[in-house]
Design goal:
The complex is a heterodimer of chains A (about 325) and B (about 350). Chain A is flat, with a radius of gyration of 25 Å. Chain A has 2 domains: about 50 residues, no CATH class; about 220 residues, MetI-like (MetI-like fold, Orthogonal Bundle). Chain A is built from 14 helices and no strands. By secondary structure, chain A is an all-alpha fold. Chain A starts with a helix and ends with a helix. An 8-stranded mixed sheet of chain B has the order 6-7-8-3-9-10-12-11, sandwiched between helices. Chain B has a 4-stranded antiparallel sheet with strand order 2-1-4-5, with helices on one face. Chain B is built from 14 helices and 12 strands. In chain B, a hairpin with a 2-residue loop joins β11 and β12. The radius of gyration of chain B is 21 Å and the shape is globular. The chains are: A mainly alpha (about 325), B alpha/beta (about 350). At the A-B interface, α9, α10 and α14 of A face α3, α4 and α7 of B. The structure holds adenosine-5'-triphosphate, iron/sulfur cluster and magnesium ion. Magnesium ion binds next to α2 of chain B. The site of magnesium ion has 4 residues of chain B, from α2.
């Protein structure tokens, strides 16, 4: 177990180091002069006075060696200080924290909803491949995969907000405003989860230990609960984590359509406005979260598979 | 209390003469409905109380499917298309899901060829063995756990308390099979079905497991359906032997008679192969050709394409045109072959 933790920890630190270096170098991409970037962001005049530029360089500490600059930047970043946004003039750390919280809430709601529906649906489909539930599930997943979010979202707003008036059409204000975007966001993962759960459960239900459990007198439902789900969980956890990591970076389409202040919109606006500090912080945060999620997946594997646990020396 | 009463009752429900398990004219087909192909055609088998019956035959002859039919645990693709299966007087084919769950594990225990694959890798073995006890005997978690330790001791698993908490990866094939036996015996079934229980094990472990099975059957007065293609095992354990070929029984009778005086050409070849006999040229005797499945056959004796006797026999015509019936040749010894005549004493009776 310690061996495993040590190895994981090393990989984690290495990844974060590389990510921080890349993030630090973002301002040097393109025009290659961070001072010029800052001035351009603040002053409308395209012709920058060389003296002002030099003063700005000194003010930003850009006259120091690159390594020193990196360490200074890293020290601030570790304390959550990524500087001020070029555009909003607010601390990037705060902006990012708020947006991340929004995106995590949205992503987790959508994915848990998707899992809640797909787990019984996929399992039911797997119990009788080619049966009625299976056919229905196939039809549903095909439809959901084919319909894009930018069509689903306006349709949702049209029906539930404008016609029925049950839910707010946009904004981020209380649980009610979460429902519609989470629903729209859940549909595609729901389809993919259903498919992978069906495939995993078909495999598992054919496994010898399922026949053995049945031969002891366990009913089908009990057998699936006791011996099926855990064994079929691995691929589902993997896919869930992939989606989670993807959605934490924000879902631009849904966030823009529903006017939700999440990561997707934040990054989208930062790219358009060349808001470098936001891009740097966003990049670091998204990769760091992905690394954390991956570690959690590995821990889940260990929790499920005793043989793996054993070979890692637990 | 009610459990105990029903336990006592059930031992006397069937008249002594009636077999515990009776499979009659069983037909099983495999494949998508509409294009299903027969793999078992007209299988008959009886097992009496406390009797050890061996089912032998080549790979693919339908032994496992016969066994799985008895508890209605056939794979998804397979279906019973005809026949009757009675267990202790009850019609197994008419049972609903709940009645079947009450039959499996409770009255019929099963063990299989790959013991390690038969255990859920994510579940402690003790918990898996306890399932039957909790289901069929209504034991609490603690009581079932304690009983599992006792069972482990009975089947010869060292350090039973610790092993019950282990996961399957920590068990060798032989130990895993002991676990499976403990699970199968836990609810004290009347019949144990063992489908090639030692095929995947080392020879020394094989002998231990067979001895354990034999002891347990004798102690518990339990019937055993032992599926095997090893005639050595059969000779050591079985009271009666049924030989399967291409989806049906082609010879059956007392184990001693079948092994010492096999009548059907296929059984004879089987016995000779198991003794590793040499032919006149000094080569090892081997049965030519490979088994045909029931689905490939149109008419005539199923063994005809591989039969050495058919060519010389006066019955040649019969062999090709119609299938012989399973007929008496001596006492309860029966064979399905045109060339087999009833023995003189039998004919006089
Ligand atoms: N799940 C399945 N799907 C398709 N065909 C099957 C399946 N199970 C068995 N069969 C076929 O049914 C026939 C009988 O199989 P069965 O497993 O009963 O044979 P067996 O006598 O037990 O052989 P073995 O000694 O190899 O275990 C074989 O031809 C086999 O190919
Ligand atoms: S009936 Fe004919 S073909 Fe079949 S086993 Fe007997 S002799 Fe051989
Ligand atoms: Mg078999």
């Amino acid at each position: 177990m310690w061996h495993f933790a040590l190895r994981r920890g090393t990989v984690l630190l290495l990844t974060l180091f590389v990510v921080s270096v890349v993030a630090f170098l973002i301002p040097y991409i393109g025009e290659g002069d961070p001072a010029l970037l800052v001035l351009r962001a603040r002053i409308a005049d395209p012709n920058v006075d060389p003296a002002t530029l030099e003063a700005m360089r000194r003010q930003l500490g850009l006259d120091r060696p690159l390594a020193i600059q990196y360490l200074a930047w890293l020290g601030d970043a570790l304390r959550g200080d990524f500087g001020l946004s070029f555009i909003r003039r607010a601390p990037v750390g705060d902006m990012l924290g708020g947006a991340l919280l929004v995106s995590i809430t949205l992503a987790l709601s959508a994915l848990l909803l998707a899992l809640l529906v797909s787990a019984p649906l996929g399992t039911l489909a797997a119990m009788r491949p080619g049966g009625r539930a299976d056919t229905a599930a196939t039809l549903l997943t095909q439809t959901l995969i084919a319909i894009p979010e930018y069509w689903m979202a306006p349709m949702g707003i049209l029906i539930f907000a404008l016609w029925l008036g049950w839910l707010p059409s946009a904004g981020w204000d209380g649980p009610a405003s979460l429902v519609l975007p989470a629903l729209v966001l859940a549909l595609r993962p729901l389809a993919y989860f259903t498919r992978i759960i069906r495939a995993a459960m078909i495999d598992v239900l054919d496994a010898p230990y399922i026949t053995a459990a049945r031969s002891r007198g366990l009913g089908m439902t009990q057998t699936v609960m006791r011996h099926g789900l855990r064994n079929g969980a691995m691929p589902v956890i993997t896919l869930f984590a992939l989606w989670l990591a993807g959605l934490l970076g924000g879902s631009v389409v849904v966030e823009v359509i529903f006017a939700i202040p999440g990561m997707g919109r934040l990054i989208y606006e930062a790219v358009i406005n060349k808001d470098i500090p936001v891009l740097q912080a966003g990049f670091v945060a998204i990769v760091a979260l992905a690394v954390v999620i991956n570690t959690l997946v590995d821990l889940a594997y260990l929790a499920i598979n005793p043989a793996l646990r054993h070979s890692h020396g637990a | 209390m009610s459990v105990v009463v029903s336990l006592a009752e059930r031992r006397v429900t069937a008249a002594p003469a009636e077999p515990l398990l009776a499979i009659e004219d069983l037909h099983v087909a495999i494949g998508p409905s509409g294009r299903a192909a027969p793999v078992i055609e007209g299988m008959n088998l009886e097992i009496r109380r406390s009797e050890i019956v061996a089912l032998v035959g080549e790979s693919g002859s339908g032994k496992s499917l016969t066994a799985l039919s008895a508890t209605r645990l056939l794979p998804r693709a397979a279906e019973i298309t005809r026949g009757r299966i009675r267990f202790d007087g009850e019609d197994v084919l008419a049972m609903g899901p709940r009645a079947l769950d009450g039959l499996r594990g409770n009255r019929i225990g099963m063990i299989f060829q790959q013991p390690q694959a038969m255990l859920d890798p994510t579940c402690r073995v003790g918990d898996q063995v306890a399932e039957s006890l909790r289901l069929h005997r209504g034991l609490s978690r603690e009581a079932a756990g304690a009983r599992v330790v006792e069972l482990f001791r009975e089947v010869g698993i060292p350090a039973p308390e610790a092993r019950a908490r282990d996961f399957p990866y920590a068990f060798s094939g032989g130990m895993a099979q002991r676990v499976m036996i403990a699970a199968a015996l836990s609810a004290d079934p009347d019949l144990l079905i063992a489908d090639e229980p030692t095929t995947a094990l080392d020879v020394t472990v094989q002998a231990q497991i067979l001895r354990l099975l034999h002891e347990q059957c004798r102690q518990r007065r339990m019937s055993l359906l032992l599926i095997s293609h090893d005639l050595g095992i059969v000779a050591a354990l079985a009271d009666r032997v049924a030989v399967m070929y291409a989806g049906r029984v082609i010879e059956e009778g007392p184990a001693r008679a079948i092994l010492s005086a096999p009548r059907h050409p296929y059984t004879r070849a089987l016995v000779e192969c198991s003794l590793l006999k040499r032919d006149a040229g000094g080569r090892l005797v081997a049965l030519p050709g490979s088994a045909i499945s029931a689905r490939e056959l149109s008419h005539g004796c199923r063994f005809q394409p591989r039969c050495a006797i058919a060519a010389q026999s006066a019955h040649n015509h019969d062999c090709c045109s119609s299938e012989p019936a399973l007929a008496c040749c001596h006492g309860s010894h029966k064979a399905r072959c045109w060339a087999v005549k009833p023995e003189p004493e039998e004919a006089q009776q």
